[in-house]
Amino acid sequence: MANKQDLNKRKVGRGSRPPSHGLATTSVPQDAHATSIAVPLVRGSRYSIPGRNGRVQNSRHRRWSRTVARHFVWVTLITSFVLTVAAGCGPSEEVEEPGRPGPTAERTIGVVLKAIDSEFWLAVRDGAQKAATELGVDVTVLAPKSETDVEGQLNKIEDLIAQKVDGLAVAANDVESVIPTLERAAQRGIPFVTIDSDANAPSKLSFIGTDNVYGGRLAGEYIVNALGGEGKVGLITGVPGQQSHIARRDGFLQALEGSNLELVPPQPANSDRMMALNVMENLLESEPDLRAVFVTNATMSLGVSEAVKARKLEGEILLVGFDTSEEALGAVRSGEIDALIAQSPFNMGYLGVKKLVEHLDGKPIDKRIDTGTQVVTRENLDEYVASTQRSTS
Amino acid sequence: MKQIVFRLWAFIGLVVMCAVLAWRSEDFLTVSNLMNVMRQVTVNAMLALGMSFVIISAGIDLSVGSVLAFSSCILALTLRTGCHPVLGVLVGLAVGAGCGTINGLIVTRLRLPPFIATLGMMSMARGIAQVITGGYPVHGLPDGFRVLGSGYLLDIAPVTRPRFLHLLFENVPVPVVILLVCAPLAHVVLTHTRLGRHTYAIGGNEAAAYLSGIRVAAYKTIIYTICGGFAGLAAVISTARVGAGLPAAYLGYELDAIAAVVIGGASLFGGEGTILGAITGALIIGVLKNGLNLMQLSEYWQTFTIGAVIIGAVTVERFRHKE
After folding, report:
1. Within an 8 Å CB–CB cutoff, is residue A126 touching chain B?
2. N or C: which terminus of chain B carries fewer CB neighbours within 10 A?
3. B271 closest CB neighbour out of A6, A43, A240
4. Against a cut of 0.80, is the pTM above it?
5. What is the CATH number of the domain that holds B71?
6. Closest among A64, A85, A13, A28 to B302, alpha carbons compared
7. Which one of A12, A55, A73 would you mutate to disrupt binding with B, by most B Cβ within 10 Å of its Cβ?
8. Distance between CA B6 and CA B20 in Å, rounded?
9. Which domains does chain A have, with CATH numbers?
10. Is the ipTM of this complex over 0.85?
């Protein structure tokens, strides 16, 4: 960088230099500087691809190594691409070739999830794949980077429309933004259902998912009964605006009405475990007499239970989560989480695909299909685990 | 001749990819799918245009994703007040450019490294976006505005007479038209104006550029402003497409933009890079994602592939600078 001594020279340089001819009239005396200026200016001004032509006089050896280097990126790019394509095509081809004769074998159902970063979405995927194997259809499961990636999800849906899938099951990250895209699918003759989160699209065949309001009410009733109707209650929710989380909150609030429980202001933790931990720590700080907390998904409830554990408040605070995962069920077993409102993500994937195929076969399907909810506590844990294993195996 | 082949390597790579895709998937080489890809690419390509300026000047801008989210929220809130869409668009652009200017001022006046300055802006813009919206998405934008993101050229220029023009306009998405205007403009600015030449000069050797009389601080501020402005433009397109201002979305978009610029042959050490390269880079990433979706490949493989492409590109970067 230039220091104070250069300041004068800079001023002279700036004043005397005609525009766009910086190189010719450079007034800095040092030769070393003058040559180093020449490189960037020539690069930028005379050649459209700077730096490449600027070094033509290099030795032959150097040019050769640069050639190899430049090839490398495209070789890597193409190789990795071909590899992945090959990896992806291998198995699907085997399925396709013998399947050609039957009419159902050519059907492909596209399933677009909110993300694929938790056990919940893996269970939806497993359900969809189970239905596909049972019914003899192909299923493509796609998901954007994260549950906040609305545009990425639209891209996935559009790609499936371009692929002319026979039906779409979509769990929308933003239930309003997705409507025009889903309607475009309907215009192209692709029927769709919404799973997990309902989007209010006119051409929707069905919404297949948990009755979240009912689930939230179950959570609220559990807390009301356990606390005997007195004390402060916290509420931690997901990404603001997500319809399923709003519905759970609403059900929870309905259950609290008429009791003497005091709700402290609800806080979002964006379905993120770390964020939930931080939010809970702050909540424990600001509300030392908190008696219970309802968390609207399983990932966040684990973060919350860590915050409770760190404060050595296990058993003091009633923790109710929504939804299950292997880890969360383990936390119920060890008593860190008191209750989980279990939904059935497997059923969402399974019924999503199954109902679409039924529709394609000309059967009528219901506008609203409940995939079921139940309260899982330490007492009925084994029973619950046994029932889910039956449905997945 | 050899030089020309080198220059076109990125493009050849893209063409080969398209050829493989067309061969493997019958749905790839259709007008509707290609336009689909182009529409999907625009947001990243817009960010890559601005990012090109910054990277060529040996800087980096990690804040574009958050600035995009921030200006999309302000834009959506402005439109919700019922003002004219044009005013909303200008507000969106101004917010983006403003954030860019602040980046530039932090880099030049507070003398923080661009990485740190824009890392701070990344968090600040995200935070403000969530504060002003309370974390909720802002819905309810007018249909007239949404044409900018999800409409076709025919919606804004209803041409019926020459049949082929009608067909063309029917299939070209509006965002693609905006990109087709902006990219050549950025190219001309970068190669044929003083601003462009000084961008290369600053990136090539900042001290020398300073000593030769270039007002490095001023130009750097302009460069970051341009980058922010393109983030604002990306926000306009994306908000129009999604139909909502989304405070929590656009995570990691800056990385895709940097990847596009680097794949396109720019050097993170500055002084090298072209607009054509950045666009090709963005197209490669977009076609890759679309193609892998059409191939029914899982998200996991897509993430892997894009990572492999970036590593390849940066490896070349090292080879070149070792010499």
Report:
1. no
2. N
3. A43
4. no
5. 1.10.3470
6. A85
7. A73
8. 21
9. 104-210+347-370 (3.40.50.2300), 212-343 (3.40.50.2300)
10. no
